[in-house]
Protein: Mannonate dehydratase
Organism: Alkalibacterium pelagium
Amino acid sequence: MKTTFRWYGEGNDTISLSDIRQIPSMHSVVWALHDLQPGVVWPVDRIQEVKDQAAEYNLGIDVVESVNIHESIKLGTPDREEYIENYKKTLRNLGKVGGVKVVCYNFMPVFDWVRTDMAKALEDGSTALFYEVDKIEGVDPYELVENVKNSSRGMTLPGWEPERLEKIEELFKAYENVSEDNLFDNLAYFLKEIVPVAEENGIKMAIHPDDPPYPVFNLPRIVRSKENLQKIVDIIDSPSNGLTLCSGALGSNPDNDVPNMIRTFKDRIPFAHIRNVKVFENGDFIETSHREQDGSVPILEIMKAYHEIGFEGYMRPDHGRHLWGEESRPGYGLYDRALGIMYMIGAWDMLEKLKRESKE
Ligand code: CS2
Ligand code: MN
């Protein structure tokens, strides 16, 4: 297992590479060129620049999260060809610079993750991202957009880029006639084009589950259950057609058995997100510390499952709470994610020790 930490880039993150270097066990950063819109080719010199910056701190750039998918690819409109070509060029450029082994992406229409409150107070005085079912059912998506903009502290959130939000009305209209089956076909079309190029460049594509893992605002969502993940890995039987198994995104639906998914898809998971959420009876959920007892996701069983399958991929702590007055991008402060890492590697190191001792 290789431990990683998400970094939004020089000048775009309150957390520096020097901060990240000081977290125990760091192998590499999870990064992206966040200023580039979906559909744009990532230039070699920009990729090289990040590689050099990270190398100065002895960190790799092994995982990209994400090279985002242009809406035309998800919608399956004729201009997708151009954007698929551009995606291939980006993969080739990543291959040219070298060092990138995994590209995470998602296939969620219009929005990436959705929450109704970016700073809900927990009992201990920290704040965290909160999702309220009733609010979403009653809410006008445009209002939610305003709410997100106002609480993002001036920083862009992945999937909530201002350029994308400007086109929101148009996008909702475009998806009116797109069913889950259509979306699935469009994903299959994309993967059949992309996976051979990823293979040639030593890259594993890793799709991130939908967050939350069910349709919102009547937009179709397909990356959300064991059955659907199976359909996705079956599209092409290649290690380059893989999964980002996010325990938080999947875990906010109690029907999803994440340890079972890890054991089932074991050789198709190049990238693991570890996050805990507490799910309430009415379906609301709040993000908590990574500790198993604090939420509804069986984090220790998840670590055990990864250990059991001999996981050699990349793992990162996903969203954390906002602690000790830190002014961070929602969900992406330094403190709680660093605490999360210590929990993850604490569990991992103990599993390794027990395994060693059982052989003695
Ligand atoms: C995050 C996502 O919500 C999450 O779990 O990890 O924002 C993730 O970065 C993207 O969906 C991946 O494309
Ligand atoms: Mn995630």
Q: What stands out?
A: Residues 208, 246, 248-249, 273, 318 surround manganese (II) ion (ligand 2) (CB under 6 Å). The chain has one domain: 2-359. The longest strand covers residues 26-31. The domain at 2-359 is CATH 3.20.20.150 (TIM Barrel).
